[in-house]
């Protein structure tokens, strides 16, 4: 009887794998993959723990390191309250000197830019015509006075004849009326003389005010008329001088309240906004608000002793409206702003800072007036806010010492005394001294 090999033996002889039957190598491969993943996960977990520990150590060292700052103590003092505005310098008085008679300008008696006094003769007009008119009126009066004298003698004779009935009373009364008419004519002659004298006087153009003359508008030899709009010259009064400025309409109440107490002091500054040019007083408040700008116009007067103010110049104006008595004042740099408003870092026990909210009543570039939040004995941080936070420890430097900037990480040591995170250049030096490749000559 012949042996017939089975299907399994035939497949084995042919070197083929029977379906549904796994080899021993195929069963071991998934096990190695699982083991590898477990090892990698464990190493990653250990690395994460080490990283977190390092961060905690660094944070602990950073929190233990004091932050250098500068500090100041609040001052108790009287603080003036000012309102700021922008204004224009204007001459207190400006006059365009015009001729009051027509004629040829024969003399100009001033230099452009010269200071003149009231009554100084600035120019002269040819007086020939006006002198002749004056002389004519004087002669006319003399003629009428002579006639009046003769009429008075006739009146005296007629009165004597009327008394003795040698003449009629009507003739005496008529002569009396003629005398009265002649007396009136003499008075008219005197008025004509006064007018002619005034016209003759107008040939000398005099300064109506004291001030500084500008540029000459008419040269000598030209005909000058009373209808000329430019005039001979313009005089502006520079001492004293005025400044016209505006304030928001919301400040009307404060300005009126200050004006009711007395004179209001006004300071004017140069174009840089810091240099005090002059100090004067408020002399006028406009009677209405400008509806187009919502501002109120005011005018102040200044001595201008050194001509530091000039008409047409733009200046910054500061007006004093009140004084805060015994106010708490700190440097403006100590006031910080956060999401919830203004605050200041106050240094407490153990040089630990605390962020306290403060209410600022007013402030400028230098000082801030604190209404609430800081006491007279507190110390506030003024410089060194870069690494500062609530609850941080600080070291207060002297006022003449600036805090040292933390530009690079500090050297740190582990618990065994070995340095970590050292200088990179030092590590490079160590590598260079080992068995590595030497540099070529």
Which terms summarize this structure?
441 residues, alpha+beta, 24 strands, 31% helix, rod-shaped, disordered C terminus
Task: Describe the protein.
By secondary structure, the chain is an alpha+beta fold. It contains six helices and 24 strands. The chain has helices spanning 7-14, 24-64, 128-163, 169-201, 252-261, 424-432, and strands at residues 67-72, 75-91, 94-97, 103-108, 115-116, 121-125, 204-206, 211-213, 223-224, 233-236, 241-248, 265-269, 276-290, 295-302, 314-331, 336-338, 341-347, 353-357, 359-363, 367-372, 379-383, 394-396, 412-413, 419-420. Strands 1, 16, 17, 18, 21 and 22 form a six-stranded mixed sheet that branches. Strand 13 (276-290) and strand 14 (295-302) form a beta hairpin. Helix 3 (128-163) runs antiparallel to helix 4 (169-201). The longest helix is centred in the first third of the chain and has 41 residues, at 24-64. The chain starts with 6 loop residues before the first helix and ends in a 9-residue tail after the last helix.
């Amino acid at each position: 009887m012949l042996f017939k090999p089975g299907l399994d033996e035939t497949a084995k002889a042919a070197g083929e794998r029977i379906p549904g039957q796994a080899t021993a190598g195929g069963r071991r491969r998934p096990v190695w993959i699982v083991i590898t993943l477990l090892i990698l996960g464990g190493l990653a977990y250990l690395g994460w723990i080490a990283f977190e520990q390092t961060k905690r150590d660094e944070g602990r060292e950073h929190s233990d390191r004091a932050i250098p700052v500068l500090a100041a103590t609040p001052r108790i003092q009287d603080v003036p309250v000012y309102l700021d505005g922008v204004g224009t310098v204007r001459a207190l008085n400006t006059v365009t000197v015009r001729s009051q008679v027509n004629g040829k300008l024969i003399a100009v008696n001033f230099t452009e830019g010269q200071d003149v006094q009231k009554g100084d003769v600035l120019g002269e007009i040819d007086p020939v015509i006006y002198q002749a008119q004056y002389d004519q009126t004087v002669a006319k009066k003399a003629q009428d006075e002579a006639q009046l004298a003769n009429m008075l003698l006739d009146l005296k004779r007629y009165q004597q004849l009327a008394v003795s009935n040698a003449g009629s009373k009507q003739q005496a009364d008529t002569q009396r009326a003629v005398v009265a008419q002649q007396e009136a004519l003499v008075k008219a002659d005197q008025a004509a003389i006064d007018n002619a004298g005034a016209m003759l006087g107008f040939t000398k153009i005099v300064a109506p005010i004291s001030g500084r003359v500008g540029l000459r508008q008419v040269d000598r030899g030209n005909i000058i008329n009373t209808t000329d709009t430019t005039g001979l010259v313009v005089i502006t009064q520079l001492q004293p001088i005025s400044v016209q400025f505006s304030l928001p309409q919301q400040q009307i109440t404060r300005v009126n309240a200050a004006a009711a107490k007395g004179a209001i002091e006004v300071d004017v500054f140069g174009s840089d906004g810091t240099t005090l040019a002059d100090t004067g007083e408020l002399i006028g408040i406009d009677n209405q608000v400008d509806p187009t700008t919502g501002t109120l116009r005011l005018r102040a007067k200044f001595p201008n002793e050194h001509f530091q103010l000039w008409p047409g110049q733009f200046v910054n104006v500061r007006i004093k409206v009140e004084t805060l008595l015994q106010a708490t004042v700190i440097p403006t740099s100590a006031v910080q702003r956060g999401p919830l408003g203004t605050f200041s870092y106050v240094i407490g026990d153990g040089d630990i800072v605390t962020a306290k909210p403060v209410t600022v009543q007013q402030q400028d570039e230098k000082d801030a007036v604190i209404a609430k939040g800081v006491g007279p004995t507190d110390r506030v941080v003024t410089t060194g806010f870069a690494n500062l936070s609530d609850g941080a420890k600080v070291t207060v430097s002297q006022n003449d010492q600036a805090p040292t900037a933390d530009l690079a990480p500090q050297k740190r040591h582990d618990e065994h005394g070995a340095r970590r995170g050292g200088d990179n250049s030092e590590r490079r030096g160590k590598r260079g001294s080992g068995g590595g490749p030497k540099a070529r000559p």
